[in-house]
Amino acid sequence: MVKRGAFIVIEGLDRSGKSTQTSLLRANLEAAGIPTELIKFPDRTTAIGQMIDSYLKSQSDLDDHVIHLLFSANRWELASTIEKLLTSGTTVICDRYAFSGIAFSASKGLPYEWCRAPDVSLPAPDLALFLQITPEAAKARGGYGEERYEREEMQRSVGEIFHRIGAEIASEGVRWVAVDAGHERDQVEEDIWMFVKPLAQGVEGPIRRLWP
Ligand code: NYM
Ligand code: MG
Question: Is the CB of 162 under 6 A from ligand 1?
C-alpha cells in the first residue's frame, strides 16, 4: 500500500515555544530525508490573513464571531494544499490549527460547539502535540507581546479549553499528546521527535476529517 505523508499539528499557548519547535522538527524530518512542509496558522500572507493580522495588532476591530470565521476560512484556504501535499507523500507540520481556533474564541465567551462548527471536515491531523506550559512560565520567557490575547488571564483560560479539547478529541480518536514545554529546548525537541519519528516514514489509510 502506498503511504501518504503524516499530518502533524503543534499547539500551545503563546510563548510555549511552538515556532522554535516546529522549525526544529522540520529540520529533523528533512535530515531524515522526509519531504516536509511547515505551515503556520494564521497564514498572514493571504487577503483573509491580512485582515486577521490587522485585527491581532488592534489596527482594526471585528465582531468575535467574524474573526472566528476568518481564522477558520484562513484554514480552508489552505485545506486543499494540505491534502495535496499529504497525498503526494509530503509530511505537513502545522504551527497551530483548528484547536487554537476553538481555544481562543471560546475563551472570549463564544459557545464551544459553535466554535467547532466551521472547521468540520477539515483534514484531521494524525498527531496533535500540545506544548504544555504554565502561563507564568510562558510570561517569564520574556513576556507576552503586543498582540491581542497575549495576557496572562486570557492565556490561563485558553489553556483550560485546550485541555477540554484534548480530552474530547482523544476520545474521538485523534491522537493528542501533551509535551512538557517547560523543559530545556533540546529536551522538548527530543520528546517531540520520539512521537513523530514513528510517523515519519508515512501513514497508511485515507486522510481523516475533523471532527472524527
Ligand atoms: N489564534 C490563532 C486564534 O485566535 N484563532 C485561530 O484559529 C488561530 C490559528 O492568533 N494568539 C490566535 C492565537 C495567537 C494569535 O498566532 C496569533 P501566533 O501563532 O502567535 O502568530
Ligand atoms: Mg503569538
Answer: no
Q: How confident is the model at residue 29 (pLDDT cuts 50, 70, 90)?
A: very high
Task: Give me the helix-helix angle, 47-56 and 64-87, nearest 10°.
Answer: 130
* Per-residue pLDDT at 142 exceeds 90: no
Cis bond upstream, residue 211 (ω within 30)? yes
Cβ–ligand 1 contact at 104 (below 6 Å): yes
Q: What is the C-alpha radius of gyration for the chain, rounded to an integer number of angstroms? A: 16
The β-bridge partners of 11 are 130
96 lines ligand 1 (CB under 6 A): yes
Task: Give how far the C-alpha of residue 15 lies from the chain's centroid of Cα atoms, to the nearest Å.
Answer: 13
Ligand 1 atom at minimal distance to the Cα of residue 95: 19
Cis peptide before 212 (omega within 30 of 0): no
C-alpha cell at 11: 499547539
Strand, helix or coil for residue 171: helix
Reported as a pLDDT band with limits 50, 70 and 90, residue 68 is very high
**In the chain, what percentage of residues exceed pLDDT 70?**
100
Element containing residue 130 per DSSP (H, E)? strand 127-132
Rounded CA-CA distance 145/184 in Å is: 21
Q: Kindly report the number of other CB atoms within 10 A of residue 158's CB atom.
A: 22
Domains in the chain, CATH or no CATH each: 7-198 (3.40.50.300)
